[in-house]
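Lab meeting, item 3. Inverse folding demo.
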């Protein structure tokens, strides 16, 4: 199970790096700092899924949860959201090494 969380963490990290690289390329070409919010990146990538997720969240968790998501999560930069998701998934899949070594009881 830890392997699955570590793999998902790696995928989220790759997406965060790709989003950061795309933002930096856009910033250099425009000669100003440009950061793509998660909501705009999501709409550009797949506009249909945003409405599906909106309907699902409002139905299962209530309209307050979707309002919180729109106000807090979607305006954040896409790379930072995926970087935080990668960190959380990595922490879930982390196992501390035994101080006594492999053969400890």
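The presenter then showed the designed sequence:
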């Amino acid at each position: 199970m830890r392997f699955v969380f570590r793999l998902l963490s790696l995928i989220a990290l790759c997406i965060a790096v790709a989003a950061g690289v795309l933002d930096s390329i856009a910033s250099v070409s425009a000669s100003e700092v440009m950061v793509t919010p998660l909501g705009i990146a999501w709409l550009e990538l797949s506009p249909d899924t945003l409405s599906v997720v909106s309907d699902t969240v409002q139905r299962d968790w209530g309209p307050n949860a979707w309002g919180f998501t729109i106000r807090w999560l979607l305006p954040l930069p896409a790379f930072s959201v995926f970087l935080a998701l990668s960190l959380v998934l990595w922490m879930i899949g982390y196992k501390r090494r035994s101080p006594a070594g492999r053969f400890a009881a």
